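Supplementary Methods. Inverse-folding protocol.

Structures were first reduced to a discrete structure-token string of length 492. This string, shown here, constituted the complete conditioning input.
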């Protein structure tokens, strides 16, 4: 259709089309690249706003992932990043699209020229907002001093960085970065002795970095030792905090001083009795009233009797939109008090739950179905069980959520609660579905449901908000280790 000699698509301002494309899927945006110059430019800004650069093979380095990586894959992981970096260096328009960069450093022997190319490419990313250097059990590469200096001097819009704790040896560069969100990655869960030693080696630099960001630091991720030296004025200004607690005295500090928190990710290790945590929140259940995002990992879990303080704490959070509660050691009914509190949250949109059952009985499943608020748009459900009870309509849980757009299920893969196709058919508004390590976009034509190809293993392992199409969905799945399976219920 044309109006005069100008197509109607060209009569709308580009800003309007940008808003329209922000509500479409990744696959739709990719198709827009070949529609017209207008749509190519609009879609490219979204598709290439996030860039993942991989050196080496993480599947070889971490010895995980589905199947065995091929020689071709290993070769591609060395050559393809170099081509992308050259594109960034030689194409200023392409470089301007990039706002988020993830580096996957899994190459033991990476030529200095490629590290130099990475540094040169970063210097061209003048719109860069966040930079992540992934850190795992065994760090194969550290960011070079030249790279950190380049981030500090060339990326004036940088607001967030995630770096290995060892990067504190380049304190001057970190102090010069204009970031308000700092994530210094700890070594790994269960490596507390190494973590303490690492922290002691960089303690003075860590404190100096916090003092340099006084008045501007809003988001902080740190290990348990770090909170001991974190100044009170820093804690009082934080709006987002991620922390793993392995010392009893550190719990009370959070609830006493972090009064402005809007997002809290709290992991309680096995070294802390659950009674210490419940006692801390029992002192003032109304603490942290501004919370909109709460993620709690309990290890070990909290029994039904001691769950009252947790339930009261959750119930008092009238602004809470996103809740991810992980208690893998208790059943649905053992968590019934917490679930009843969740039911009372009128603003809740994103929910994650984990349970352990010997036999998953219909009566418990019915209770869970009636508990989950109908306002939920994203649901992560992990259930570990030995067997399923009979005569239960398991699918009713997802079918009862009219606004559900994203669902992820981790169940017994050889005896699943629900199949991917059945789930998508029941949840009429579903746009993305995950089953263990399989993620697929959902398409609908009338009553017909089809799926995209499954996400690649790398995309699953290093999940980015841009790929989910929603920051809250990435937040929901953050720090959850998924079980790798070779085939999902949709098939290939």
């Amino acid at each position: 259709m044309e109006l005069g000699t100008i197509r109607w698509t060209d009569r709308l301002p580009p800003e309007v089309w940008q808003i329209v494309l922000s509500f479409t899927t990744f696959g739709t945006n990719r198709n827009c690249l070949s529609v017209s110059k207008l749509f190519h430019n609009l879609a490219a800004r979204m598709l290439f706003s996030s860039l993942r650069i991989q050196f080496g093979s993480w599947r070889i380095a971490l010895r995980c992932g589905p199947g065995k990586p091929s020689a071709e894959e290993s070769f591609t992981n060395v050559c393809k990043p170099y081509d992308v970096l050259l594109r960034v260096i030689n194409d200023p328009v392409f470089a301007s699209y990039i706002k988020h960069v993830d580096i996957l450093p899994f190459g033991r022997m990476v030529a200095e020229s490629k590290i130099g190319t990475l540094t040169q490419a970063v210097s061209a990313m003048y719109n860069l907002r966040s930079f992540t250097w992934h850190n795992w059990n065994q760090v194969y590469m550290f960011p070079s001093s030249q790279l950190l200096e380049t981030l500090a001097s060339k990326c004036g819009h940088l607001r967030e960085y995630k770096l290995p704790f060892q990067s504190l040896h380049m304190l001057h560069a970190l102090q010069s970065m204009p970031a308000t969100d700092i994530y210094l990655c700890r070594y790994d869960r269960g490596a507390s002795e190494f973590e303490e030693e690492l922290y002691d080696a960089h303690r003075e630099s860590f404190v100096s970095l916090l003092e340099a960001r006084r008045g501007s630091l809003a988001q902080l991720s740190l290990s348990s030792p770090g909170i001991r030296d974190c100044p009170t004025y820093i804690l009082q200004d934080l709006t987002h905090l991620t922390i793993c607690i392995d010392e009893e005295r550190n719990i009370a500090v959070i609830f006493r001083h972090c009064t402005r928190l809007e997002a809290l990710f709290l992991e309680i290790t096995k070294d802390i009795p659950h009674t210490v945590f419940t006692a801390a929140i029992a002192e003032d259940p109304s603490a942290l009233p501004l919370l909109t995002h709460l993620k709690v990992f309990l290890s070990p879990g909290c029994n039904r009797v001691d769950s009252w303080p947790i339930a009261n704490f959750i119930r008092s959070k009238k602004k809470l939109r996103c809740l991810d509660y992980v208690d893998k050691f208790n059943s649905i009914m053992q968590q019934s008090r917490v679930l009843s509190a969740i039911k009372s949250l009128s603003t809740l949109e994103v929910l994650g739950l984990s349970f352990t059952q010997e036999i998953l009985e219909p009566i418990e499943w019915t209770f869970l179905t009636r508990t989950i608020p109908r306002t939920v748009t994203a649901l992560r459900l992990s259930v570990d069980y030995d067997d399923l009870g009979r005569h239960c309509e398991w699918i009713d849980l997802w079918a009862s959520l009219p606004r559900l757009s994203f669902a992820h299920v981790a169940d017994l893969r050889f005896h699943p609660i629900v199949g991917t196709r059945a789930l998508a058919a029941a949840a009429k508004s579903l746009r993305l579905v995950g089953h263990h390590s399989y993620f697929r976009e959902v398409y609908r034509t009338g009553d017909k449901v089809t799926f995209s190809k499954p996400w690649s293993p790398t995309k699953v392992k290093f999940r980015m908000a841009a790929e989910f199409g929603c920051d809250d969905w990435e937040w929901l799945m953050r720090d959850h280790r998924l079980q790798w399976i070779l085939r999902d219920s949709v098939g290939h």
